[in-house]
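Section: Multi-chain targets

For targets with more than one molecule, the full set of components is provided together so that the structure can be written out for the assembly as a whole rather than chain by chain. Components appear in the order listed by the source. The example entry contains two components.
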Amino acid sequence: MTPAAGARDHLPPAAAGGRASSAPLLGRDTEPTLFELSRPGRQAWQLRTTGVPELPLEELVPAEHRRPSPPQLAEVSERDLVAHFTRLSHRQFSVDLGSYPLGSCTMKYNPKVCDAVAALPGLADVHPGAPASCTQGWLELLVELEEALCQVTGMAAATLQPAAGAAGELTGLLLMRAWHESQGRPRSKVIIPDSAHGTNPASVTLGGYQTVTVPSDERGCVDLAALRAELDDDVAGIMLTNPNTLGLFEEEILDIAAAVHEVGGLLYYDGANLNAILGVVRPGDMGFDIVHLNLHKTFATPHGGGGPGAGPVAVAPRLAPFLPGPRPVRLDAVDVDGAGPRFGWETPEHSIGRVHSWHGNALVLARALAYVLVHGGDGLRRVAQLAVLNANWLRTRLHGTYDVPYDRPCMHECVLSAATLKRTTGVRALDVAKRLLEEGFHAPTVYFPLVVDEALMVEPTETESLQTLEALADAFERIARQAAAPGGAELAAGAPHGTPVGRVDETRAARTLVPTFDARP
Amino acid sequence: MADYTPHTEEEIAAMLGVLGLDGLDDLFAVVPAALRLAGGLDLAPGLPEPDVMVRMGGLAAANRACGPDLVCFAGGGAYDHEVPPVTRALASRSEFVTSYTPYQPEVAQGVLQAVFEFQTLLARLSGVPVANASLYDGAAAVVEAVNLGAAASGRQGVLVSRGLNPSWRDVLGTFAAGTGHELEDVGLEDGVTAWGTATQPEPGVVVVAYPNYLGCLEDLGAVRRLCDRTGALMVVAFDPVCAGILRSPGEWGADVVVGEGQVFGMPLSFGGPYLGLFACGAAHVRRLPGRLVGETVDAEGRRAYVTTLRAREQDIRREKATSNVCTNQTLMAVTAAVQMGWLGTSGMAEIALRSARGARYCRSALLAVPGVEPLSTAPVVREFALRLPLSASLVVERLAEEGFLAGIPLDGAHGTDERGLIVAVTERRTRDEIDAFASAFEKAVR
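Its structure, encoded as tokens over all components, is:
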């Protein structure tokens, strides 16, 4: 039963659901490695009884190919293995633990139903090389997801193979290259704004193009005049994120698209920030020709501490013949009685080739489809609305405490700056980040985008409550206040306290490289 | 409509009030009106979770999963090895699953230490001293190895054994369109690479698989000599399970070792997410693609871990980065660390040995079927290639009806026609299953 609005006025204040300050972190001891837990002769593995004849190794592998002795890994009991990795998990911040306002990473809550879907044996235990007659469910799932992603982006067709955003970028650039070559004009340059993610220029190089950087104007958007000055018939295309990495919508997008298309270039949409515009405006309608999506951001598939992701690439009709193959497709009604398979594989006529060993990060794709099905069109639109609402509320609240370099309505994230704080107190963006960890929040992205001094890029996402935003804002304000108090700089420089380890010496790690346990001095 | 947003209508109204806005649509006033979707997305209305489970369950039911009803003898880069409950449980801990790339090491020691242990385990297994934190899959690892090799040698020419997984070879070709690498395929003779037929006088990189796609053991000593003679880097795509009993690529002199790590605790998953393995000699560490975790100390001198040599990476070097990799497959690396911890020294050798025994037994049984011939006489470990008396795809379809996933049909690139089939046997196959498979096989090839 819903209480009347009047009754709610008398509710006590709600606590913040996204503050992790009560997480129990036991003790201050170093967790030993697997190798230190090892004792020769211990064994955790148990394998099936097979009855297969037990030939000796010498009869199976010729001497010149045989390993002289087994690889020395670690020898631990199952009990110690579980305790070790459980303790490691306790030394790890996660979305499930608390708010993770890491800008540009869209660390929203990852619905558990999607994990349940990915664990279905009918999905998880299917061999990727099985004939299509055995994989009709998977093919239908992939076709349905492709259609949904095309609807969300306003594009005609998509490949689901790229395993992450950067893989999608490179796939998109190779599509761009194949297109221009088919037009008989290879071209050599790709334009990128100075606020772009680092993956963009790195992908451009691997795509065989030169990067041309265009500056942002005083409003934080692409400088249209500077862009026009770079445009000629040697420009293959432009890579844009919209909203851009400052969290601002590129309002002149239609003029940008017209200008790039006029010289025969293509528009590439970096989908890192798609969460802001779901169901509100579509890249295809803005004039983009190639779009990658980060399903591990916008579609809530868990990021796994650095992957797996999924970076499908959707394209306009004229680029569809170049997509990677083989692609899952609906088959025409071959059998009149409908008895034959309804889905199959098809390689597009001018395909650039495969970009993945198999069909992409399939279980991530299954999670994304479940997310789409739960939300529907209206639900996805509400995701964008509330993500943008949360970011603007936070921007408005923190304005004055921190600098807001581009002070106008933002989309899904806002970029603050600790420049004034640093000048007046000596406390830097990095220190603010470390202090937030002590406060029970993950830090925002710091020192990015590069065009903002002492940048703090905050993306609260739509799944954080008003109470969590208030607690986060309180923490930001407390940090600024304490920075200005006597001893504030020392307090900040010593942060974080209470975390599993204190401030980590990154310089030493790079100077004296210890990449494995065996390389320890 | 269902979603996971916590906002009450009163809270939304209050927040809009703070912003001086009347409605949620006003948040998008900066978007040109002509661009705003008038009717919303043309997608079905949202469904409650239980309904979504029914729908997805229906799709799952339309597949034939490997298990007692479809006993798996297929490999080709994806193998049905044991995934114990302990690995499933630890790899699905939500602290590992729902965290981002460890940008704040003080609250990411769990993932960082697990990856450090993974790097150590992979280095020990591959026989070279440095391993990265993972790449997307085996194909991506080969692509990055060739990029590293070309940069290190300063040469664009690449000799690629036809024994490399053909999908990986396809991916290599796709990305060579951007990098300009000149790929030359070197064909097989009796199951192993005929390096003498290569025409490039000075390749920068040589790529070989061990065992190769037909399951055969290549002469890596000959590859090392070829690389010494030409100055090329030696890239070995190794099978990390077979490595439990085979000489390590490092011992054979490999400069870069790559592979597919799905075999370490990942279900078949219709091909992903899998795990790209990448390891190399210390000389190449500054060209390493992707993330690398290193040990260091915190402010109090306690042991700590952090991603390191960051100056190689795209977010700092931008267009001059060694690779564009950002998000990789960290959760799969953590999974592999758990699985390798579970296997340990003895288990790693044991699954390789048991797989080799099963493959030997199965190969003999299938070769006893009239009309079935070996595709080569070279030694094999877990997988082997056959020439059938009729189309391999047809045989696979027929055997699927009988409850067996018989293998992966070969394409024309391996000196065979449509009658070639590769069959894999892991430690999970029993003698009874193999006997039943052989007897069904006999009927299927008639």
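Chain A touches chain B through 214 residues (CB under 8 Å).
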